[in-house]
């Protein structure tokens, strides 16, 4: 059955954002997908927002590609202005936009790599999530209920990537936690997801360049598909007591167990709790 939801997924040209957007499309959503990769891929990675929109259509939803550089607040505002004009509502906002250097460029101390990483992780990542919330929340409130999901990771607790990466991820968790009290009266739930390893081109490159980073945590065998989080979002939406979770940070693997969701091929991704412990803003399921 089509969900009838209207969703926005930022940073959906490829990888995790693309997978979540397609999964929401498979549930019947109209999904607005944003990113800079409009007519051709940016950087060294494949994928464009138009390809994602087409995949959403093929999955049974309606994909709408909106070119947006999330460093530009005016472009971010224009995304939500368009959603209002075309749909008159918004139900789900997934904050996934971020930028990151190739793994091959990561070795060395952070002060030796310049300031670009800060812009990529904090300005494109964390700040763009805040800006998207500022412009998207009025639509969620007007719809009568809403769900915001920030894509985070165990990088909020462990040093897995360049220094600004962890700052961005703990910021995503704190953003969800601190939005929750303001959103509670409006029936809008804000969560942060700690994804495990996700089967993306970037992860494959990471395994190639830094296999030691993935030793002892299950490797690719315990990884989740890019669309896994989208199926969890669909299950969360159907939870009649969703607001009890607002402000919390959750392992996607544990949400999946709670809601009875298995990944592609009947696979159950492992929880990284045994390796990294509990999120700071964890709430009981």
Descriptive notes:
With 285 residues, the protein is of the alpha/beta class. It has one domain: 3-Layer(aba) Sandwich (Rossmann fold), CATH 3.40.50.720. It is 41% helix and 14% strand. It has nine helices and seven strands; from the N terminus they run E-H-E-H-E-H-E-H-E-H-E-H-H-E-H-H. Strands 3-2-1-4-5-6-7 form a seven-stranded parallel β-sheet, sandwiched between helices. Helix 1 packs parallel to helix 2, helix 1 packs across helix 7 and helix 4 packs parallel to helix 5. The radius of gyration is 17 Å and the shape is globular. The two termini are 26 Å apart. The model has no long low-confidence stretch (mean pLDDT 90).
Topology:
Elements: E1 6-9, H1 15-26, E2 30-35, H2 49-59, E3 62-67, H3 73-87, E4 92-95, H4 116-143, E5 146-153, H5 163-183, E6 188-195, H6 201-209, H7 228-237, E7 249-251, H8 252-259, H9 273-276
Parallel strand pairs: 1-2, 1-4, 2-3, 4-5, 5-6, 6-7
